[in-house]
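For the sake of clarity, the format in which proteins appear in this thesis is described at this point. The record quoted next illustrates the convention:

___
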Amino acid sequence: MNLRPQRRTAQRLLTSLAALSLVTLGNAMFAGPASAADGVDLHPVFSDVKFGAGSTVVIEPLKLKNAGTAKATGVVLTLELVSESGPAPLRFVAGSDCTDVSATRVRCPMPDVPAGATIDVQYGGVYIKSLETNPVPGSPNPTSMPAHVKVGLSAAEPELNPADNTVDSPKILRTVKVGARDWSIATQPVSGKVGDVVDVPITVDYKGPGGIGQGETVTHFVLPDGAEFVEQLQGCADAPSGVERVCTSTGFLEQPYDRPYTYRLRIKIVKAIVADGKVHIEGMGGDLKPADNTAKIVINVDGVVRPTASIPTGTSATASHSAAPAPGLPVTGDKTTIVAATGAAVLIVGAVLLVLGRRRRVRLELPRD
């Protein structure tokens, strides 16, 4: 019996099976568990961006859309502030849940977004603590600001359509509530030597209209030349010059509206100071009596002669550094020199008159008989 044809058939069959196994193994090794087209397609969905009460930039409502075929994890929302003319009218500040906060950029962690889903951001939106670089409390509102925000999304997975990951918002809408109030501010002078850290007492008073919750305030500090801030405060932003600071009441100062409130501003004396700084407070809706909204920051440095004596706005002479001496203490200084000179002159004149009087005595002579 001739078995050669059967052996050839078996060999062909084994060869085919081996080739098929190699192909299957190659597909398993290189194709991966999913199709090469899998990925995320993220897109932010919102209507506008507002800047309002609490000095906060608000994007609300905000939705995250994933039109891709894979779940988006490690999602990050990026907000970039873009000025449309001149310096940006706002700056982001720390104090929110977002990370990597700079003056014009923040990054905020977001929840995962399933494939093909659109989800609402927790609490309905994103709220970024912000400050106006040049606040105008009494300006008309609402009004458009000369700036907008680039809103972008990214994830850990490959992005299928990067073109729609970032969306430019309309102009930021300033929605600060307008309503004029009556605030006042007063300070007291302090003294120290170069290198000292001093605490400047600052008293804020809300005078009306009555009631509580009268809206936030903006406080603008300008230090005198030779002084610098010691510590950063929540809700405050410093200008690049290092001697200017803008704060909102919702951050650094919780103000009781039924009585004056005094806090202390820590300042370091870095060199001789011969001029005054200033501090200004105003409600976001303007002020009914702006005359008492500004006070001087007076720092007297030991051994430094100031050109003129200065009493800060809103304080009395008794609150100034150069108060009158206590009763019973010897009086010294320039006034004692004047008094001594006057006394000496009086003594000299008296002595001269006494001599002349003795030399020109009148003799009484009785008539002779």
Observations:
- The longest strand covers residues 197-208.
- The longest helix spans residues 4-30.
